[in-house]
Amino acid sequence: VSVEKVIIVAKEEFLRKNVGKFLRRMRIDCAEVGTIQEAHDYLGKGNFDLMLLDEELPDGSGMDFLQEINLRPSKPLVVFMGESVDAGETAMKKGAHDFLLKPFDLKFIKILVKKAGQFAQ
Questions:
Q1: CA distance 120 to 60
Q2: Where does the Response regulatory domain lie (predicted)?
């Protein structure tokens, strides 16, 4: 099983666009959203294999949204994106699959996608 569909939930448009472009070059379908509400809308329309979730969003906390996602019967693996190692550790305790410390190099996205694909098998 490989990662075919990713949703990027991040407040910075630059981050969403760059990561989205990178994933599409890897032939991965992705949605880019900037708010929790938009993420809810997309998750209601279909399943995603992986979610890249920002720590802070304009309409709420990524940490709170992570806990909400974990209650869903069909949920994506979540990679939490934050600015401190403490936030990453907390996110992993609350159910995140992995953590990216911002700012990060795009090569880490490729590694995470590969790891997520192996985990899903």
A1: 28
A2: 5-117
Of 56, 112, 29, nearest to 65 by C-alpha is 56
**Is 84 strand, coil or helix?**
coil
Strands 56-57, 60-61: pairing is antiparallel
pLDDT, tens digit, 9 for 90 and up, residues 24-52: 999 999 999 999 999 999 998 888 999 99
- Show the domains of the chain with their CATH numbers: 5-114 (3.40.50.2300)
Taking Cα atoms as reference points, which of 102, 99, 94 lies closest to residue 112? 99
DSSP state of 71: T
Using CB atoms within 10 Å of the CB of residue 98, give its burial: 0 to 12 exposed, 13 to 18 middle, 19+ buried.
buried
